[in-house]
Amino acid sequence: MRHNFLDRYSRLDSPIHRLPATAKLLGTLGLVITIVTVPMTCWACYAIAGLLLGIVAVLSRVPPSFILRRLLLLEPFVLGVSILSLLRPDGLVLFAALITKSTLCLLAMILLSNTTPFARILDLLRNIGMPAIIVTLLALMYRYLFVLIDEAERMHRARMSRTYEPRKGHWWKATATVISQLFIRSSERAERIYAAMLSRGWK
Amino acid sequence: MSQAVVVNNLRYTYPDGKEALRGISFTVHEGECVAVIGPNGSGKSTLLLHLNGILPASPSGNPDVALFGLPATTANLPIIRRSVGLLFQDPEDQLFCPTVFDDVAFGPQQFGGEEEAVRATVRSALERVGLAGFEQRSPHHLSSGEKRRVCLAGVLACQPRALVLDEPTSELDPRGKRELTALLAGFSATKIIATHDLELVVRLCPRTILLDAGRIIADAPTLQLLSDEPLMVEHGLEKPHILLHKHPHGEHGLDRKPHHP
Predict the structure, then answer these.
(1) What CATH number does the domain containing B218 carry?
(2) Is residue B237, in this structure, part of any structural domain at all?
(3) What angle do CA B185, B188, B192 make, to 5 degrees?
(4) Phi and psi at residue B124, in whole multiples of 5°?
(5) Separation in Å, CA of B54 to nearest CA in chain A
(6) The overall pTM is greater than 0.95
(7) Is A200 on the interface with B (CB under 8 A)?
(8) Nearest CB to A200 within list B53, B99, B110
(9) CB-based contact (8 Å) between B88 and chain A?
(10) Phi/psi at B154 (nearest 5 deg)?
(11) What is the domain range of residue B207?
(12) Of A11-20, A158-167, B62-71, which gets the smallest average pLDDT?
């Protein structure tokens, strides 16, 4: 099935992909921290950061349409958070700044995850002293995200194959069932994974 | 011959009240290859989980099971888990690391190996299962057969004295089954295999234990047990085709080597 929707371009070959992972991770982190901490109305800062990310995006040969679609997918979450700022007196400026900041940070992260294989990022985090438990959690999350997607897709197909006349109310009910089933199956799988880890000496 | 596995009147009830094992006793000697067969829900997987100390999850462990002379008490579990390699039914459960290398290296790293030694162990384990050079691949990009073999490499890398395999050939195509059977035949370790693949049983295991509803129904030489058609059918199984047809080139085709490229 489709296992490549998250970081399908992380194994391309380009000047950016060939950069050492350390440089990319630290660069991204630095950029994100800078974007978050610059004053709200420093539009020039945003423009420079945007330009920088644009150059990286072009050099990395990751298709712009892919980056845009990823951004659009994540934008609702950004909107959901920043919409609250509209309630404040100077809301509009704050709103625009928040959207810009978040979008730039997301762009940086999308570029990082599509120019560096995730396993390399994990190695790096381990090397720079990230607590082992967090690295393990990240590794497990990345690994089972794909299994979970497959499982959801199989359940969805099985449901569609027995859906004759899709109705709105029905759809909500069926989707809720899939989500709850997925939750139960995941917790059972977690038990089995833990058993598999124990059997190979996990302490 | 020394005893690899001794199970003495083993009982297990799941927390939801389902009685999975109702008094199981058997002994497996070192170097033996024993099949555990039985219908779905007969307790095969539950039994296997006891052979590695995964079940029961009680703090005291289980003194009814002894592996290589050590009772499966909590204090002995580190040694027992090292000497018994468990291959799980679903490769997705067993391959929990982001790369093949990390996964195969997981066991040796837990047991505290040097980095260079771990690297060499991983390379040789992958070679043994025919996947040399797969170190940097992601588990989710592998085929079912490859996943299964990476799981096996992960178990072999722990250098176990006994292999406990749960449905090793399920989800494999006929070629995958043949290859895995040939691979397993090459290992001299003690093997306990729970499976529905009766052809594999006939080819690999001289001895078979038939389990149903948490009890041992029969424990006998494989050809004798599997040829008993009424018994097999009564317990949800069948007499395997390999024993029904006399092959022109030898009895049951058994003296033919498994065919693989």
Answers:
(1) 3.40.50.300
(2) yes
(3) 75
(4) -70, -35
(5) 6
(6) no
(7) yes
(8) B110
(9) yes
(10) -60, -35
(11) 3-89+160-253
(12) A158-167
